[in-house]
Amino acid sequence: MVTTQTPAIDKAMAVFAFLAENGRASFTQIQKATGLPKSTSSSLLASLLAHGLVSLEEGRYALGLRWYELGNKVEESLDIKRAAMEPLTQLRDRTQLTCHLGVLEGSSAIYVLKLESPTAIVIRSWVGRRLSLHSSGLGKALLAWLPEAKLNAILPDIDFVRRTDTTIVGVEAFREELAATRQRGWAFDNAEDNDGVYCVAAPLINAAGEVTAAISVSGVSSQVNRANLDDIAAAVVATAGRIAADYRH
């Protein structure tokens, strides 16, 4: 459980995270999973019920409909998602690859839009999924153009876990990768996050020169390879520029 200077929120978030991962659960299951005392769990769940953040049916708790309302409000605030829809759809149709739009949140990236490839090849991902910054093309694109001070603040919080044989796991090696990314103008995930899955990504940069989001295309080796990598990258970079320009207006 994440610990901050506001214990009440930490405890509530532990409950939300458990229910989000496991669906419906009994009081005992929640109490044991979170490690909270029974009295604390009881009063906390009662408060969350009152606010509609959890529901209770036949002795089992679940996330409440209040989250649906709040989630819709968040989605409405993501104007960049609306700006990206048409260009990203055209990119998907042109490349036949799975397309994503993602944003930086803390020490991870999060998908806010996904367009499935029209082919039979399925890339396992979903809107709301968090992904590692060091092993994903989207993560590299979000970091590579950050000011040095902001990048230095984020790097210590990244857990450089090796996910595949090609994952970059050292800070200095990762800095070199980000420098190479800036130089070429796009990021590449060389099957570093998932075996056999390759990704090309580019940042969306606003008028102030700040990275607001990034887009990516993902596919297997038969879809993304040396023969077509430059063409795919050019299409991704052009689409990112178009979305960024539309979003500014």
From TrEMBL:
<feature type="domain" description="IclR-ED">
    <location>
        <begin position="66"/>
        <end position="249"/>
    </location>
</feature>
<dbReference type="GO" id="GO:0003677">
    <property type="term" value="F:DNA binding"/>
</dbReference>
<dbReference type="GO" id="GO:0003700">
    <property type="term" value="F:DNA-binding transcription factor activity"/>
</dbReference>
<dbReference type="Pfam" id="PF01614">
    <property type="entry name" value="IclR_C"/>
</dbReference>
<dbReference type="InterPro" id="IPR036390">
    <property type="entry name" value="WH_DNA-bd_sf"/>
</dbReference>
<dbReference type="InterPro" id="IPR050707">
    <property type="entry name" value="HTH_MetabolicPath_Reg"/>
</dbReference>
<keyword id="KW-0805">Transcription regulation</keyword>
<dbReference type="InterPro" id="IPR036388">
    <property type="entry name" value="WH-like_DNA-bd_sf"/>
</dbReference>
<dbReference type="GO" id="GO:0045892">
    <property type="term" value="P:negative regulation of DNA-templated transcription"/>
</dbReference>
<keyword id="KW-0804">Transcription</keyword>
<dbReference type="InterPro" id="IPR029016">
    <property type="entry name" value="GAF-like_dom_sf"/>
</dbReference>
<dbReference type="Pfam" id="PF09339">
    <property type="entry name" value="HTH_IclR"/>
</dbReference>
<dbReference type="InterPro" id="IPR014757">
    <property type="entry name" value="Tscrpt_reg_IclR_C"/>
</dbReference>
<keyword id="KW-0238">DNA-binding</keyword>
<feature type="domain" description="HTH iclR-type">
    <location>
        <begin position="6"/>
        <end position="65"/>
    </location>
</feature>
<protein>
    <submittedName>
        <fullName>Putative transcriptional regulator</fullName>
    </submittedName>
</protein>
<dbReference type="InterPro" id="IPR005471">
    <property type="entry name" value="Tscrpt_reg_IclR_N"/>
</dbReference>
